[in-house]
Amino acid sequence: MPLRIDVITIFPDYFAPLQLSLMGKAQQSGLVTIAIHDLREFTSDRHRSVDDTPYGGGAGMVMTPEPWGQAIDAVVTDQSTLIVPTPAGKLFSQPVAAELAHSTHLIFACGRYEGIDQRVVEYYRPRIDVRELSIGDYVLAGGDVATLAMIEASVRLVPGVLGNPESLVEESHQLPGVEYPSYTKPPTWRGLDVPEVLLSGHHDQIARWRAEQSTIRTTHNRPDLLPGS
Ligand SMILES: COC(=O)c1cc2cc(CO)sc2[nH]1
Protein backbone atom coordinates (compact mmCIF):
# COMPACT_ATOMS: atom_id res chain seq x y z
CA MET A 1 0.00 0.00 0.00
CA PRO A 2 1.85 3.13 -1.15
CA LEU A 3 1.96 6.15 1.16
CA ARG A 4 -0.28 8.90 -0.23
CA ILE A 5 0.54 12.52 0.53
CA ASP A 6 -1.73 15.48 -0.24
CA VAL A 7 -0.28 18.96 0.23
CA ILE A 8 -2.61 21.96 0.37
CA THR A 9 -0.89 25.34 -0.08
CA ILE A 10 -1.23 28.78 -1.67
CA PHE A 11 2.27 28.29 -3.14
CA PRO A 12 2.16 25.01 -5.13
CA ASP A 13 5.44 25.93 -6.87
CA TYR A 14 7.23 25.59 -3.50
CA PHE A 15 6.84 21.84 -3.96
CA ALA A 16 8.46 21.47 -7.37
CA PRO A 17 11.62 20.06 -5.66
CA LEU A 18 9.64 16.94 -4.73
CA GLN A 19 9.86 15.88 -8.38
CA LEU A 20 13.66 15.75 -8.12
CA SER A 21 16.16 13.19 -6.86
CA LEU A 22 15.14 10.76 -4.13
CA MET A 23 11.62 12.17 -3.76
CA GLY A 24 11.09 11.98 -7.51
CA LYS A 25 12.34 8.40 -7.65
CA ALA A 26 10.12 7.44 -4.71
CA GLN A 27 7.12 8.65 -6.69
CA GLN A 28 8.22 6.94 -9.90
CA SER A 29 8.69 3.70 -7.95
CA GLY A 30 5.07 3.83 -6.83
CA LEU A 31 6.09 3.65 -3.17
CA VAL A 32 4.74 7.14 -2.58
CA THR A 33 2.22 9.33 -4.39
CA ILE A 34 2.33 13.07 -3.75
CA ALA A 35 -0.35 15.51 -4.94
CA ILE A 36 -0.15 19.30 -4.52
CA HIS A 37 -3.38 21.31 -4.27
CA ASP A 38 -3.77 25.08 -4.59
CA LEU A 39 -5.93 26.31 -1.70
CA ARG A 40 -7.32 29.09 -3.90
CA GLU A 41 -9.05 26.44 -6.05
CA PHE A 42 -11.30 25.94 -3.03
CA THR A 43 -12.38 29.57 -2.60
CA SER A 44 -15.69 30.83 -3.93
CA ASP A 45 -15.29 34.61 -4.08
CA ARG A 46 -14.11 36.60 -7.10
CA HIS A 47 -10.84 37.56 -5.38
CA ARG A 48 -10.14 33.98 -4.30
CA SER A 49 -9.37 35.35 -0.85
CA VAL A 50 -7.96 33.06 1.85
CA ASP A 51 -7.38 35.37 4.81
CA ASP A 52 -9.02 38.03 6.97
CA THR A 53 -8.31 40.16 10.04
CA PRO A 54 -7.92 38.41 13.41
CA TYR A 55 -10.78 38.47 15.96
CA GLY A 56 -9.47 40.03 19.16
CA GLY A 57 -7.15 42.31 17.19
CA GLY A 58 -3.42 41.91 16.70
CA ALA A 59 -1.06 42.24 13.79
CA GLY A 60 -1.26 40.28 10.57
CA MET A 61 -3.97 38.20 8.97
CA VAL A 62 -5.48 34.79 9.70
CA MET A 63 -6.44 32.20 7.08
CA THR A 64 -10.22 31.73 6.94
CA PRO A 65 -11.55 28.23 7.72
CA GLU A 66 -13.91 27.54 4.82
CA PRO A 67 -11.40 27.13 1.96
CA TRP A 68 -9.46 24.74 4.23
CA GLY A 69 -12.63 22.79 5.01
CA GLN A 70 -13.43 22.49 1.31
CA ALA A 71 -9.85 21.50 0.41
CA ILE A 72 -9.40 18.95 3.21
CA ASP A 73 -12.88 17.44 2.60
CA ALA A 74 -11.83 16.89 -1.03
CA VAL A 75 -9.01 14.51 -0.03
CA VAL A 76 -9.73 13.25 3.53
CA THR A 77 -10.58 9.64 4.38
CA ASP A 78 -10.90 7.96 7.76
CA GLN A 79 -7.31 6.75 7.27
CA SER A 80 -5.94 10.29 6.95
CA THR A 81 -3.52 12.06 9.27
CA LEU A 82 -3.82 15.85 9.05
CA ILE A 83 -0.53 17.63 9.69
CA VAL A 84 -0.60 21.35 10.39
CA PRO A 85 2.87 22.95 10.47
CA THR A 86 2.93 25.71 13.08
CA PRO A 87 5.55 27.29 15.33
CA ALA A 88 3.17 26.41 18.19
CA GLY A 89 3.27 22.71 17.36
CA LYS A 90 5.02 19.73 18.94
CA LEU A 91 8.60 19.36 17.77
CA PHE A 92 9.01 17.18 14.68
CA SER A 93 11.74 14.59 15.16
CA GLN A 94 13.21 11.45 13.63
CA PRO A 95 10.82 9.22 15.64
CA VAL A 96 7.88 11.29 14.32
CA ALA A 97 9.27 10.93 10.79
CA ALA A 98 9.33 7.16 11.29
CA GLU A 99 5.69 7.21 12.43
CA LEU A 100 4.63 9.28 9.42
CA ALA A 101 6.58 6.96 7.09
CA HIS A 102 4.31 4.12 8.18
CA SER A 103 1.07 6.05 7.69
CA THR A 104 -1.43 5.39 4.91
CA HIS A 105 -2.39 8.97 4.05
CA LEU A 106 -0.86 12.30 5.10
CA ILE A 107 -2.53 15.66 4.46
CA PHE A 108 -0.27 18.69 4.99
CA ALA A 109 -2.11 22.00 5.51
CA CYS A 110 0.49 24.67 4.74
CA GLY A 111 -0.56 27.88 6.45
CA ARG A 112 0.75 31.36 5.81
CA TYR A 113 0.34 34.68 7.58
CA GLU A 114 -0.39 34.28 11.30
CA GLY A 115 -1.78 30.82 10.76
CA ILE A 116 -5.05 29.03 10.06
CA ASP A 117 -8.31 29.64 12.00
CA GLN A 118 -8.01 27.15 14.89
CA ARG A 119 -11.48 25.74 14.19
CA VAL A 120 -10.03 23.79 11.26
CA VAL A 121 -7.96 21.74 13.72
CA GLU A 122 -10.92 21.60 16.14
CA TYR A 123 -13.27 20.34 13.37
CA TYR A 124 -11.05 17.45 12.18
CA ARG A 125 -9.58 16.40 15.54
CA PRO A 126 -12.62 14.23 16.54
CA ARG A 127 -12.67 12.66 13.06
CA ILE A 128 -9.03 11.88 12.19
CA ASP A 129 -5.50 12.02 13.65
CA VAL A 130 -4.49 15.71 13.67
CA ARG A 131 -0.90 16.74 14.47
CA GLU A 132 0.30 20.33 14.90
CA LEU A 133 4.06 20.15 14.25
CA SER A 134 6.98 22.57 14.24
CA ILE A 135 10.37 21.80 12.69
CA GLY A 136 12.32 23.91 15.15
CA ASP A 137 12.54 26.85 17.48
CA TYR A 138 12.41 29.57 14.85
CA VAL A 139 9.57 30.95 12.78
CA LEU A 140 9.29 30.57 9.03
CA ALA A 141 7.06 32.69 6.79
CA GLY A 142 4.72 29.75 6.32
CA GLY A 143 4.29 26.01 6.65
CA ASP A 144 5.57 25.19 3.15
CA VAL A 145 9.29 24.82 3.94
CA ALA A 146 8.42 22.91 7.13
CA THR A 147 6.24 20.58 5.04
CA LEU A 148 9.06 19.99 2.52
CA ALA A 149 11.40 19.07 5.40
CA MET A 150 8.89 16.73 7.04
CA ILE A 151 8.05 15.03 3.73
CA GLU A 152 11.73 14.45 2.92
CA ALA A 153 12.53 13.17 6.42
CA SER A 154 9.53 10.82 6.38
CA VAL A 155 9.56 9.55 2.79
CA ARG A 156 13.23 8.50 2.97
CA LEU A 157 12.17 6.12 5.77
CA VAL A 158 9.47 4.44 3.66
CA PRO A 159 10.72 0.88 3.10
CA GLY A 160 12.23 0.59 -0.36
CA VAL A 161 12.77 4.29 -0.97
CA LEU A 162 16.41 4.33 0.07
CA GLY A 163 18.40 2.19 -2.38
CA ASN A 164 20.82 1.31 0.38
CA PRO A 165 18.92 0.52 3.60
CA GLU A 166 22.37 0.02 5.14
CA SER A 167 22.59 3.76 5.75
CA LEU A 168 19.36 3.56 7.73
CA VAL A 169 20.75 0.73 9.83
CA GLU A 170 23.82 2.84 10.70
CA GLU A 171 21.56 5.81 11.47
CA SER A 172 19.34 3.78 13.78
CA HIS A 173 22.34 2.26 15.60
CA GLN A 174 23.76 5.74 15.95
CA LEU A 175 24.97 6.29 19.50
CA PRO A 176 22.96 9.04 21.10
CA GLY A 177 24.56 12.12 19.58
CA VAL A 178 25.78 13.40 16.27
CA GLU A 179 27.62 11.54 13.53
CA TYR A 180 31.39 11.24 13.21
CA PRO A 181 33.14 13.25 10.44
CA SER A 182 33.41 11.63 7.00
CA TYR A 183 36.30 11.59 4.51
CA THR A 184 36.85 10.33 0.97
CA LYS A 185 39.54 10.57 -1.76
CA PRO A 186 42.03 12.17 -2.24
CA PRO A 187 44.08 11.03 0.82
CA THR A 188 45.70 14.48 0.93
CA TRP A 189 43.87 17.64 -0.08
CA ARG A 190 45.44 21.10 0.06
CA GLY A 191 47.98 19.75 2.55
CA LEU A 192 45.32 18.14 4.77
CA ASP A 193 45.52 14.38 5.35
CA VAL A 194 42.69 11.94 6.04
CA PRO A 195 43.04 10.65 9.66
CA GLU A 196 45.53 7.75 9.49
CA VAL A 197 43.29 5.28 11.32
CA LEU A 198 40.73 5.41 8.49
CA LEU A 199 43.31 4.11 6.03
CA SER A 200 44.52 1.38 8.40
CA GLY A 201 41.93 -1.29 7.67
CA HIS A 202 41.67 -1.98 11.42
CA HIS A 203 37.89 -2.01 11.67
CA ASP A 204 37.69 -2.10 15.47
CA GLN A 205 40.14 0.81 15.75
CA ILE A 206 38.10 2.69 13.12
CA ALA A 207 34.88 2.00 15.04
CA ARG A 208 36.49 3.25 18.26
CA TRP A 209 37.84 6.38 16.58
CA ARG A 210 34.42 7.13 15.08
CA ALA A 211 32.70 6.69 18.45
CA GLU A 212 35.23 9.08 20.03
CA GLN A 213 34.73 11.63 17.25
CA SER A 214 30.97 11.40 17.66
CA THR A 215 31.27 12.08 21.41
CA ILE A 216 33.67 15.01 20.86
CA ARG A 217 31.35 16.54 18.26
CA THR A 218 28.23 15.96 20.34
CA THR A 219 29.87 17.51 23.41
CA HIS A 220 30.87 20.54 21.37
CA ASN A 221 27.79 21.01 19.17
CA ARG A 222 24.91 19.22 20.90
CA PRO A 223 25.55 18.60 24.60
CA ASP A 224 21.77 18.29 24.95
CA LEU A 225 21.99 14.95 23.13
CA LEU A 226 24.58 13.46 25.52
CA PRO A 227 23.23 10.55 27.59
CA GLY A 228 21.96 11.66 30.98
CA SER A 229 21.64 15.31 29.89
C1 LIG B 1 9.96 26.15 12.34
O1 LIG B 1 8.83 26.87 11.83
C2 LIG B 1 7.74 26.14 11.48
O2 LIG B 1 7.69 24.92 11.60
C3 LIG B 1 6.64 26.96 10.97
C4 LIG B 1 5.43 26.49 10.49
C5 LIG B 1 4.70 27.65 10.16
C6 LIG B 1 3.40 28.01 9.66
C7 LIG B 1 3.28 29.39 9.57
C8 LIG B 1 2.08 30.16 9.11
O3 LIG B 1 0.91 29.49 9.43
S1 LIG B 1 4.68 30.21 10.09
C9 LIG B 1 5.50 28.73 10.44
N1 LIG B 1 6.70 28.33 10.94
Report on the architecture of this protein.
- The protein has 2 domains: 161 residues, Alpha/beta knot, CATH 3.40.1280.10; 60 residues, Trp Operon Repressor, Chain A.
- It starts with a strand and ends in an 8-residue tail after the last helix.
- It has a 5-stranded parallel β-sheet with strand order 2-1-6-5-7.
- It has 7 helices and 9 strands, in the order E-H-E-E-E-H-E-H-E-H-E-H-H-E-E-H.
- Helix 3 crosses helix 5.
- The chain is of the alpha/beta class.
- Bound molecules: the ligand COC(=O)c1cc2cc(CO)sc2[nH]1.
- The site of ligand JA5 has 15 residues, from strand 5 and helix 5.
- One of its GO terms (cellular component) is cytosol.
- InterPro entries: Alpha/beta_knot_MTases, tRNA_m1G_MeTrfase_C_sf, tRNA_m1G_MeTrfase_TrmD, tRNA_m1G_MTases_N, tRNA_MeTrfase_TRMD/TRM10.
Sequence-ordered SSE layout with sheet pairings:
Blueprint: E1 3-9, H1 21-28, E2 32-38, E3 51-52, E4 62-63, H2 65-75, E5 80-91, H3 94-101, E6 105-109, H4 119-124, E7 129-134, H5 143-155, H6 166-172, E8 188-189, E9 192-193, H7 203-221
Parallel strand pairs: 1-2, 1-6, 5-6, 5-7
Antiparallel strand pairs: 3-4, 8-9
Bound molecules: the ligand COC(=O)c1cc2cc(CO)sc2[nH]1.
The site of the ligand COC(=O)c1cc2cc(CO)sc2[nH]1 has 15 residues, from strand 5 and helix 5.
Task: Describe, in short, the structure shown.
This protein has 229 residues and is of the alpha/beta class.
